[in-house]
Amino acid sequence: MTAAPVLELRGVSKRFGAIQALTDVDLEIRAGEVTALVGDNGAGKSTLVKTISGVHPIDAGSIAFKGETVRVTRPHDAQELGIATVYQDLALCDNLDVVANLFLGREIRTRHVLDQVAMEQQARELLDTLSIRIPSVRVPVASLSGGQRQVVAIARALIGSPEVVILDEPTAALGVEQTAQVLDLVERLRDQGLAILLISHNMADVRAVADRVAVLRLGRNNGVFRVADTTGEEIIAAITGATDNAASRRLSRAGTGQPDAPSGESASAKEGQR
Known about the structure:
Elements: E1 7-16, E2 19-29, E3 34-38, H1 45-52, E4 60-65, E5 68-70, H2 75-81, E6 83-86, H3 98-102, E7 109-110, E8 113-114, H4 116-129, H5 146-157, E9 164-168, H6 176-191, E10 195-199, H7 203-209, E11 212-217, E12 220-226, H8 232-240, H9 246-253, H10 267-273
Parallel strand pairs: 3-10, 3-11, 6-9, 9-10
Antiparallel strand pairs: 1-2, 1-4, 4-5, 7-8, 11-12
Helix pairs in contact: 5-6
Protein backbone atom coordinates (compact mmCIF):
# COMPACT_ATOMS: atom_id res chain seq x y z
CA MET A 1 0.00 0.00 0.00
CA THR A 2 1.41 3.40 -1.00
CA ALA A 3 1.89 5.81 1.89
CA ALA A 4 -0.12 9.04 1.84
CA PRO A 5 1.88 12.05 0.65
CA VAL A 6 3.44 14.28 3.28
CA LEU A 7 3.06 17.28 0.98
CA GLU A 8 0.40 17.53 -1.72
CA LEU A 9 -0.32 20.28 -4.23
CA ARG A 10 -3.60 20.34 -6.13
CA GLY A 11 -4.41 22.70 -9.01
CA VAL A 12 -1.77 25.24 -8.03
CA SER A 13 -1.59 28.31 -10.30
CA LYS A 14 0.58 31.41 -10.14
CA ARG A 15 0.62 34.52 -12.32
CA PHE A 16 3.07 37.42 -12.46
CA GLY A 17 1.34 40.22 -14.31
CA ALA A 18 0.78 39.02 -17.88
CA ILE A 19 2.91 35.89 -17.34
CA GLN A 20 1.13 32.70 -16.29
CA ALA A 21 3.99 30.86 -14.56
CA LEU A 22 2.00 27.87 -13.24
CA THR A 23 -1.33 26.43 -14.36
CA ASP A 24 -3.22 23.72 -12.43
CA VAL A 25 -0.07 21.97 -11.19
CA ASP A 26 -0.40 18.82 -9.07
CA LEU A 27 2.47 17.35 -7.06
CA GLU A 28 2.84 14.69 -4.37
CA ILE A 29 5.89 14.24 -2.13
CA ARG A 30 6.09 11.14 0.08
CA ALA A 31 8.20 10.24 3.09
CA GLY A 32 11.17 7.99 2.38
CA GLU A 33 11.19 8.96 -1.30
CA VAL A 34 13.17 11.26 -3.55
CA THR A 35 10.87 13.03 -5.99
CA ALA A 36 12.74 14.80 -8.79
CA LEU A 37 11.19 17.89 -10.36
CA VAL A 38 12.50 18.40 -13.89
CA GLY A 39 11.73 20.61 -16.86
CA ASP A 40 13.30 22.89 -19.40
CA ASN A 41 14.30 26.48 -18.60
CA GLY A 42 11.14 28.49 -17.98
CA ALA A 43 9.07 25.40 -17.18
CA GLY A 44 8.10 26.79 -13.77
CA LYS A 45 10.33 24.73 -11.46
CA SER A 46 11.72 27.66 -9.48
CA THR A 47 8.29 29.26 -9.17
CA LEU A 48 6.80 26.01 -7.88
CA VAL A 49 9.58 25.64 -5.30
CA LYS A 50 9.02 29.20 -4.12
CA THR A 51 5.28 28.62 -3.72
CA ILE A 52 5.99 25.59 -1.52
CA SER A 53 8.61 27.45 0.53
CA GLY A 54 6.38 30.50 1.03
CA VAL A 55 8.25 33.02 -1.10
CA HIS A 56 5.32 33.38 -3.55
CA PRO A 57 1.77 32.77 -2.25
CA ILE A 58 -0.32 30.75 -4.72
CA ASP A 59 -3.13 32.40 -6.69
CA ALA A 60 -5.32 29.30 -6.97
CA GLY A 61 -5.33 25.68 -5.88
CA SER A 62 -4.43 24.16 -2.52
CA ILE A 63 -1.47 22.88 -0.51
CA ALA A 64 -1.95 20.05 1.98
CA PHE A 65 0.53 18.93 4.62
CA LYS A 66 -0.10 15.50 6.15
CA GLY A 67 -3.60 15.52 4.73
CA GLU A 68 -4.61 18.93 6.09
CA THR A 69 -5.01 21.97 3.86
CA VAL A 70 -2.59 24.70 4.90
CA ARG A 71 -1.81 28.29 3.95
CA VAL A 72 1.81 29.01 3.06
CA THR A 73 2.14 32.73 2.46
CA ARG A 74 5.65 33.38 3.85
CA PRO A 75 8.83 31.36 4.45
CA HIS A 76 8.12 31.20 8.19
CA ASP A 77 4.88 29.28 7.46
CA ALA A 78 6.81 26.61 5.55
CA GLN A 79 9.45 26.32 8.27
CA GLU A 80 6.78 25.95 10.96
CA LEU A 81 5.20 23.09 9.02
CA GLY A 82 8.55 21.31 8.66
CA ILE A 83 9.50 22.25 5.09
CA ALA A 84 13.17 23.19 4.60
CA THR A 85 14.58 24.58 1.34
CA VAL A 86 18.21 24.68 0.24
CA TYR A 87 18.50 27.14 -2.65
CA GLN A 88 21.12 27.00 -5.36
CA ASP A 89 23.03 30.00 -3.97
CA LEU A 90 23.32 28.18 -0.57
CA ALA A 91 23.07 31.49 1.39
CA LEU A 92 26.10 30.67 3.54
CA CYS A 93 28.22 33.30 5.31
CA ASP A 94 31.77 32.75 4.05
CA ASN A 95 33.39 34.60 6.94
CA LEU A 96 31.70 32.46 9.61
CA ASP A 97 32.72 28.95 10.63
CA VAL A 98 30.63 25.80 10.10
CA VAL A 99 29.03 25.91 13.56
CA ALA A 100 27.97 29.55 13.18
CA ASN A 101 26.46 28.81 9.75
CA LEU A 102 24.57 25.76 10.98
CA PHE A 103 22.92 27.68 13.82
CA LEU A 104 22.58 31.05 12.10
CA GLY A 105 19.29 32.49 13.36
CA ARG A 106 18.75 29.49 15.66
CA GLU A 107 21.59 30.00 18.11
CA ILE A 108 21.52 28.14 21.42
CA ARG A 109 21.68 30.53 24.37
CA THR A 110 22.22 30.04 28.08
CA ARG A 111 21.23 33.03 30.18
CA HIS A 112 21.34 35.27 27.11
CA VAL A 113 24.86 34.13 26.24
CA LEU A 114 25.67 31.99 23.18
CA ASP A 115 26.35 28.41 24.26
CA GLN A 116 29.27 27.68 21.94
CA VAL A 117 29.98 24.29 23.52
CA ALA A 118 26.43 23.00 23.00
CA MET A 119 26.29 24.26 19.41
CA GLU A 120 29.64 22.70 18.53
CA GLN A 121 28.62 19.38 20.09
CA GLN A 122 25.30 19.30 18.22
CA ALA A 123 27.05 20.30 15.00
CA ARG A 124 29.50 17.40 15.31
CA GLU A 125 26.70 14.96 16.09
CA LEU A 126 24.64 16.11 13.12
CA LEU A 127 27.55 15.91 10.68
CA ASP A 128 28.53 12.48 12.03
CA THR A 129 24.95 11.22 11.66
CA LEU A 130 24.97 12.30 8.01
CA SER A 131 28.51 10.92 7.47
CA ILE A 132 29.69 14.38 6.41
CA ARG A 133 33.45 14.75 6.48
CA ILE A 134 34.97 18.22 6.82
CA PRO A 135 38.37 19.25 8.27
CA SER A 136 36.89 20.99 11.32
CA VAL A 137 33.60 22.54 12.38
CA ARG A 138 35.56 25.67 13.28
CA VAL A 139 37.03 26.42 9.85
CA PRO A 140 35.52 29.32 7.86
CA VAL A 141 33.07 28.16 5.21
CA ALA A 142 35.12 30.08 2.63
CA SER A 143 37.90 27.49 2.99
CA LEU A 144 35.64 24.52 2.12
CA SER A 145 35.24 22.90 -1.30
CA GLY A 146 32.06 23.29 -3.31
CA GLY A 147 30.80 19.87 -2.28
CA GLN A 148 31.55 20.50 1.39
CA ARG A 149 29.74 23.84 1.24
CA GLN A 150 26.71 22.14 -0.31
CA VAL A 151 26.49 19.46 2.39
CA VAL A 152 26.88 22.11 5.10
CA ALA A 153 23.94 24.01 3.59
CA ILE A 154 21.88 20.81 3.57
CA ALA A 155 22.89 20.02 7.15
CA ARG A 156 21.81 23.53 8.22
CA ALA A 157 18.36 22.88 6.76
CA LEU A 158 18.07 19.82 9.03
CA ILE A 159 18.65 21.74 12.28
CA GLY A 160 14.91 22.29 12.70
CA SER A 161 14.10 18.56 12.14
CA PRO A 162 12.04 19.10 8.95
CA GLU A 163 9.97 16.37 7.32
CA VAL A 164 10.28 17.74 3.76
CA VAL A 165 13.59 18.90 2.30
CA ILE A 166 13.70 20.76 -1.03
CA LEU A 167 17.05 20.80 -2.84
CA ASP A 168 17.34 23.31 -5.68
CA GLU A 169 20.02 22.19 -8.17
CA PRO A 170 22.36 20.88 -5.44
CA THR A 171 24.98 19.53 -7.89
CA ALA A 172 24.83 22.23 -10.59
CA ALA A 173 28.33 23.68 -10.00
CA LEU A 174 30.10 20.60 -8.63
CA GLY A 175 32.69 18.24 -10.01
CA VAL A 176 32.29 14.47 -10.26
CA GLU A 177 33.63 13.61 -6.79
CA GLN A 178 31.73 16.43 -5.09
CA THR A 179 28.53 15.48 -6.89
CA ALA A 180 28.88 11.90 -5.65
CA GLN A 181 29.27 13.22 -2.10
CA VAL A 182 26.04 15.22 -2.33
CA LEU A 183 24.07 12.37 -3.95
CA ASP A 184 25.23 10.03 -1.19
CA LEU A 185 23.85 12.51 1.34
CA VAL A 186 20.52 12.70 -0.51
CA GLU A 187 20.22 8.91 -0.29
CA ARG A 188 21.00 8.98 3.44
CA LEU A 189 18.28 11.57 4.00
CA ARG A 190 15.80 9.35 2.15
CA ASP A 191 16.87 6.36 4.24
CA GLN A 192 16.13 8.39 7.36
CA GLY A 193 12.52 8.71 6.19
CA LEU A 194 12.55 12.30 4.97
CA ALA A 195 10.54 13.40 1.95
CA ILE A 196 12.95 14.87 -0.61
CA LEU A 197 12.11 17.13 -3.55
CA LEU A 198 15.13 17.34 -5.87
CA ILE A 199 15.23 19.95 -8.63
CA SER A 200 17.84 19.11 -11.24
CA HIS A 201 18.76 19.44 -14.91
CA ASN A 202 21.12 16.48 -14.73
CA MET A 203 19.30 13.29 -15.77
CA ALA A 204 22.19 11.12 -14.58
CA ASP A 205 21.81 12.54 -11.06
CA VAL A 206 18.03 12.16 -11.23
CA ARG A 207 18.18 8.52 -12.27
CA ALA A 208 20.85 7.82 -9.66
CA VAL A 209 18.81 8.83 -6.60
CA ALA A 210 15.19 9.62 -7.52
CA ASP A 211 12.28 7.25 -7.01
CA ARG A 212 9.79 9.31 -9.04
CA VAL A 213 10.17 12.10 -11.59
CA ALA A 214 7.59 14.86 -12.03
CA VAL A 215 7.89 16.80 -15.29
CA LEU A 216 6.84 20.42 -15.77
CA ARG A 217 6.43 21.88 -19.25
CA LEU A 218 5.36 25.47 -19.88
CA GLY A 219 4.04 25.74 -16.34
CA ARG A 220 1.90 22.60 -16.49
CA ASN A 221 2.23 18.96 -15.48
CA ASN A 222 3.54 16.79 -18.28
CA GLY A 223 3.81 13.42 -16.58
CA VAL A 224 4.96 11.62 -13.42
CA PHE A 225 7.26 8.64 -13.92
CA ARG A 226 8.66 5.92 -11.69
CA VAL A 227 12.38 5.82 -12.41
CA ALA A 228 12.59 2.03 -12.17
CA ASP A 229 9.96 1.63 -14.89
CA THR A 230 10.95 4.48 -17.23
CA THR A 231 13.78 5.14 -19.67
CA GLY A 232 15.69 8.40 -19.72
CA GLU A 233 14.46 8.95 -23.27
CA GLU A 234 10.82 8.93 -22.13
CA ILE A 235 11.51 11.53 -19.46
CA ILE A 236 13.43 13.74 -21.88
CA ALA A 237 10.60 13.43 -24.38
CA ALA A 238 8.18 14.71 -21.74
CA ILE A 239 10.52 17.60 -20.90
CA THR A 240 10.95 18.69 -24.52
CA GLY A 241 7.36 18.06 -25.60
CA ALA A 242 8.33 15.37 -28.09
CA THR A 243 5.50 13.21 -26.74
CA ASP A 244 3.04 15.75 -28.14
CA ASN A 245 2.96 14.43 -31.69
CA ALA A 246 0.36 13.40 -34.26
CA ALA A 247 0.18 9.81 -33.01
CA SER A 248 -0.43 10.79 -29.38
CA ARG A 249 -3.07 13.31 -30.44
CA ARG A 250 -4.93 10.65 -32.45
CA LEU A 251 -5.03 8.44 -29.35
CA SER A 252 -6.21 11.27 -27.09
CA ARG A 253 -9.04 12.12 -29.53
CA ALA A 254 -10.19 8.55 -29.97
CA GLY A 255 -12.58 8.82 -27.05
CA THR A 256 -13.78 12.36 -27.76
CA GLY A 257 -15.00 12.08 -31.34
CA GLN A 258 -12.89 15.02 -32.45
CA PRO A 259 -11.44 14.90 -35.97
CA ASP A 260 -7.88 13.72 -36.35
CA ALA A 261 -5.11 16.18 -37.14
CA PRO A 262 -3.85 16.05 -40.75
CA SER A 263 -1.36 13.22 -41.01
CA GLY A 264 1.35 15.43 -42.50
CA GLU A 265 1.21 18.08 -39.78
CA SER A 266 4.30 18.04 -37.60
CA ALA A 267 4.51 18.64 -33.87
CA SER A 268 6.59 21.75 -34.42
CA ALA A 269 3.94 23.21 -36.74
CA LYS A 270 1.28 22.63 -34.13
CA GLU A 271 3.42 24.35 -31.53
CA GLY A 272 3.61 27.37 -33.80
CA GLN A 273 -0.20 27.54 -34.05
CA ARG A 274 -0.71 27.72 -30.29
